[in-house]
Amino acid sequence: MTQGIVDFDFSAMEEHVDPYPTYVAMRNAGRVLRSPIGTLMVHRYEDVRRTHGDHDAFSLGAIDMGAAAARRDGHEGGLASGDFLLAETMLTTDPPDHERLRRVVNRAFTPRSIDAIESRVREIARQLLAPLADGEAFDIVADFAAPLPTIVISELLGVPSEDANKFRVWSEAVTGTNVRARLNPETSRQYSAQLRLYLSEQIERRKEAPTDDLIGRMVVANSEQIMTDAEVVAACVLLLVAGNETTMRLITNMALALGRFPGELERLVENPDLIATGVEETLRYDSPVQMLFRACKQDTVVADAEIQKGQFVLTMLGAANRDPDAFVDPDTFDVGREENMHVALGHGIHYCLGAPLARRETRIAFEELLQMVPRFKVLTRDEDLRYPPTLMLRSPLSLVVQG
Ligand code: HEM
After folding, report:
1. Where are the domains of the chain?
2. Are 67 and 74 within 8 A, CB to CB?
3. Domain 5-402's class?
4. Most informative mutation of 121, 239, 246 for ligand 1 (most atoms within 8 A of CB)
5. Which of 87, 165, 178, 258, by CA, is between 20 and 30 Å from 242?
């Protein structure tokens, strides 16, 4: 046994429906765990932050994404599925490339920029909810949580929102977590090829006729030799996937938690100002991204474990966000929680670029939803909840609610 590392068989981490008891078992086992195939894992808040905060020792740039997917959990697809990004993106690079790529689009995601689109986001939320206002039960995933972020990110990128639906299907294929059914790998590959072709056409068009949207901004960076053609396509795919799948899951998980804890729902109905802290609490309590990964770039120490160069480390954000050393009553869902420095949006240089957008979209989604169905009920029974077959992205595939 390497110093400080405890063997723990997490290779069959199948508790997608309820991973939280497994996290307690991990905590009891030790701070740095190793699966039978050699992958390491950290799960405590302090250790997850340490890993993400030290990009000299723990890198995404050093990872072969295809191999990473296979080592992670042996599933087809997943955020790291081989052909998802053909070129490097800010997410897959270390400095200085990371800054180069992130700087091109950074400005579009500052809280100030998001202020400018708030009324449009609200309008989209209202349009989606309008047909659902007749009191019939509806699937909050398919009818609201999935289309809202897709339309918003399509508009920010500058592609016609009529194409938003296609985008959703494509991006679900790319992440391997499609809402309705699992696609076979061949269809998945075809969809991601279609997505890349579509984006290449959008880019070419802007070379002829410049636009002021995100793709337009990247095309300018391309003409200034800041980004290559392939990097522009990969950045579009990243923004689509990162923005759609995650925000959809946050909205869904919040609806589920409020359905399970009607007292917390009542607090939001009585005091809508708490919706913002309720969004933070959902990010912590049932994180849309439960797990990330890094490759160790130089020998280092976490807790008292020696981690060697080349080792692959899973970081369990979902477990860290329930760490009793970091949060008071971590298993309690408290929409008014004050101290809430969760790691649901990552930590360090790769901290979520879209965090201000995701927070705003979700707050607006619930402001509008609670106007329409203030005391909604979740009709889907716990035993019928289905989750994607990977802990990378977590939320029920469908959730039927009624006012
Ligand atoms: C609830 C919604 C969201 C969650 C839970 C989430 C979560 C995360 C996490 C955990 C990371 C860190 C990845 C890592 O360190 O390996 C990340 C990075 C990122 N997110 Fe988000 N995200 C959300 C929404 C969005 C949105 C709406 C966008 C953009 C439209 C976005 C764009 C990105 C990008 C581009 C990165 C990479 C940043 C970098 O590498 O510098 N995300 N996100």
Report:
1. 5-402
2. no
3. mainly alpha
4. 246
5. 258
